[in-house]
């Protein structure tokens, strides 16, 4: 499988503080890769840097072997990177249909594509996005991002505030998309179990650096270490 996304020694931050330190990882065609780590580990900042919203201080991001110009969201979008942020970025006062139209889904066939992946959205098409449930909003956010026909889909904390059943469903939809279309998926998660359900591989971030990585089976075998050192630890999480 060819490498779709390659992140090499990426660094970025806010003011003088670095939130992303020399981060390297790759995602191959059809792979789902989890970026794990507790609150404040640098997951969101990594995605923001990949999207060009946060300007890289060093390192490179490449899609399909071509370096993406840093610090320019348009360049990242054009290179094929789509980003569903934690806050989902919907127009809450507009209907589902209007949200999809703005993302470029104008015709019947484009809407049919959306319904095929997310059947729930069909009966909600004229409802305002702000009135949808969290899971339905997440479906709409994913549908909007997929309209870009991205090569790389990055989803930040998809499971936040959602019921376990709907999370499992969304994760399996993304897994299916990767398998059938070859899209490279980056799943940012604090929930180890959920992320590893669908992921082929994972990278664990701590204080902005990759501290562990491996295949899903590697990470599952090292689950106890992972949870005690890098993910769990309520006390440290509170002080973070
Ligand atoms: N807008 C910001 N300004 C200053 N520091 C920030 C900002 N956003 C995040 N940070 C800091 O960057 C670090 C990484 O945060 P973040 O990328 O949000 O982590 P995660 O998504 O893993 O929870 C944290 O120390 C956080 O406090
Ligand atoms: Mg975050």
TrEMBL record:
Gene3D superfamilies: P-loop containing nucleotide triphosphate hydrolases. Pfam families: ABC_tran (PF00005). PROSITE patterns: ABC_TRANSPORTER_1, ABC_TRANSPORTER_2. Residues 5-232 form the ABC transporter domain. PANTHER family: HIGH-AFFINITY BRANCHED-CHAIN AMINO ACID TRANSPORT ATP-BINDING PROTEIN LIVF (PTHR43820:SF4). It comes from Rhodococcus globerulus. This is ABC transporter ATP-binding protein. InterPro entries: AAA+_ATPase (IPR003593), ABC_transporter-like_ATP-bd (IPR003439), ABC_transporter-like_CS (IPR017871), BCAA_Transport_ATP-bd_LivF (IPR052156), P-loop_NTPase (IPR027417). Belongs to the ABC transporter superfamily. The lineage of its organism: Bacteria, Bacillati, Actinomycetota, Actinomycetes, Mycobacteriales. GO terms for molecular function: ATP binding. Keywords: Amino-acid transport, ATP-binding, Nucleotide-binding, Transport.
